[in-house]
Amino acid sequence: MIVALTGMDGNRDVSDLAEELALLRVAAGNRVLLVCPDPGAYDPRLYDDLVVDASRITDAGTSPTPARAKADAALARASVIVALLRREELERPDHAPLLERLRAAQLANPGARILVTVAHGSVPLSAHQTGCVLVFVAHLPGARLADMLILDEQGAYHSHHSELEPQRYKSANVLCAPEVRHLYREVFNR
What we know:
By secondary structure, the chain is of the alpha/beta class. It has one domain (2-188): Rossmann fold (3-Layer(aba) Sandwich), CATH 3.40.50.300. It has helices at 13-27, 66-77, 87-90, 96-108, 127-138, 161-164, 178-188; strands at 2-7, 32-35, 49-53, 80-86, 113-120, 144-151, 157-158. It has a seven-stranded mixed β-sheet with strand order 2-3-1-4-5-6-7, sandwiched between helices. Helix 1 (13-27) crosses helix 7.
């Protein structure tokens, strides 16, 4: 399975989330290749899953560039696309490039699932910010809101899943926060 993660340009949290999802997949016994965005030459028979960080766009501007083209090609090949938004990005008016990239991926690969998640601080999202998330998701046919992850000052994720997670998932040897484990189940257990 190919899973691609992306967000607004410059969202470094996407890389961390990609690493955590790959770690959980390895812990589940799968062979995983974690790349950003162009894996280069590799033998797909050696891996069960490919987790792609398609967010690292270093080229400035919105015109097509080699880095943007590689990231967009990774989105188009993915079975699942996870779009991570941050709280401070919700109020910005420049969501159009990300929406266009996700729509283009949907056109190239209509079978891909798109999950949108939000990482925010310990202060809950305002009603306006929540509305912005829902409008963003509504602009992508078939996409759905996977979760709202709370990213605290220490870089740990929290949300209502911390309290609602079944006891069997709360073990002493957990690799990631309950919210990331919940997202992992949304991505891989379908």
